[in-house]
Amino acid sequence: MAEIIVVTSGKGGVGKTTSSASIAIGLARRGHRTAVIDFDVGLRNLDLIMGCERRVVYDFVNVVQGEATLKQALIKDKRFDNLFVLAASQTRDKDALTKEGVEKVLKDLAADGFEYIVCDSPAGIEKGAFLAMYFADKAVVVVNPEVSSVRDSDRIIGLLDSKTRRAEGGEPLPAHLLLTRYSPGRVDTGEMLSITDVEEVLGLKALGVVPESTDVLNASNKGEPVILEAESEAGQAYEDAVARLLGEERPMRFTTLEKKGFFSKLFGG
Ligand SMILES: Nc1ncnc2c1ncn2[C@@H]1O[C@H](COP(=O)(O)OP(=O)(O)O)[C@@H](O)[C@H]1O
Ligand SMILES: [Mg+2]
């Protein structure tokens, strides 16, 4: 049985694609056969972050429209044999995806032995976001600790609870919160909401808290998702989040401001 995980949010630019890429790598690195699908038709972002953009010949829309087989369109990751990317089309319009077409791709992936299918959703409440969440077994709601991001996430949680296959069947869709771009310093000064504030407003528990870090952009520019950067706090936070997704208990790290002493400042310790 494949588990379908949608990575979604209300607002754009909060870190869904960054998170989808790192979660997919994290699952594959732990030995799980994983596919990650870019539902953001017209934007094509995931393949860049995964570092496979030059190998895209066929994409998700081609498969949905019957112009290529799934096998032709799946791009094998350079680092992990058990990880595959299904890229979004850059040129097609957003209506190119259909519910039946998406369902068939997900079924075929499951039949092909994939254990996890990570769906990188476009932002908002348009068709692409709806299709990305519809068949999900689990949702990861990506939120930045800001009022606007939290407010828009509330709307998405409403949709997860009503407009998904599980919801229609009367089964709840388990949803987790992933807080990204978190700066403990800005929480202390009141510019950002705290973890418990966000948890309380949305009524969801945090699966992980990823700090704001320049490592993320550097990693994306290299086509190496940040979870691969062992030294990076953001990378380690993603690794923790994947472990929790798989049911492990791990304490939250990097959520408080480290008051560095003179020597550690001097030697970067
Ligand atoms: N933890 C982080 N720290 C710093 N920048 C981040 C972090 N997470 C994401 N970003 C940046 O935010 C921007 C949007 O990220 P992206 O994953 O494309 O969001 P989305 O898919 O939700 O639109 C990118 O420039 C990315 O590098
Ligand atoms: Mg994106």
The class by helix and strand makeup works out as alpha/beta
Mean pLDDT: 93
User: Beta-strand percentage?
Assistant: 15-25%
Enumerate the spans where pLDDT stays under 50 for 5 or more consecutive residues.
none
Tally of helical runs? 13
> What is the third-level CATH name, the topology?
Rossmann fold
The biggest sheet amounts to: 8 strands, mixed
Tell me the count of domains.
Answer: 1
Q: Please report the distance between the alpha carbons of the first and last residues.
A: 45 Å
The fourth-level CATH homologous superfamily is P-loop containing nucleotide triphosphate hydrolases
Helix content: 40-55%
Instruction: Enumerate the strands of the largest sheet in spatial order, edge to edge or round the barrel.
Output: 3-4-2-5-1-6-7-8
Number of strands: 8
* Overall spatial form: globular
CATH class type: Alpha Beta
SSE ordering: EHEHHHEEHEHEHHEHHEHHH
CATH 2nd-level architecture? 3-Layer(aba) Sandwich
Could you tell me which ligands this complex binds, including any ions or cofactors?
adenosine-5'-diphosphate, magnesium ion
Question: In words, what does this structure look like?
Answer:
The protein has 269 residues and is an alpha/beta fold. The protein has a single domain, classed as P-loop containing nucleotide triphosphate hydrolases (Rossmann fold), CATH 3.40.50.300. The protein is built from 13 helices and 8 strands. The chain has helices spanning 16-29, 46-50, 60-64, 70-73, 99-111, 127-134, 147-160, 165-168, 184-188, 195-202, 214-222, 233-245, 262-267; strands at residues 3-8, 34-38, 75-76, 83-86, 116-120, 138-143, 175-182, 206-211. Strands 3-4-2-5-1-6-7-8 form an 8-stranded mixed sheet, sandwiched between helices. Helix 1 packs across helix 12 (233-245). The protein binds adenosine-5'-diphosphate (ADP) and magnesium ion (MG). Residues 9, 12-18, 45, 123, 180-181, 210, 212-213, 216-217, 220, 234 line the site of adenosine-5'-diphosphate. The site of adenosine-5'-diphosphate (ADP) has 19 residues, from helix 1, strand 7 and helix 11. This is Septum site-determining protein MinD. GO terms for molecular function: ATP binding; ATP hydrolysis activity. One of its GO terms (cellular component) is cytosol.
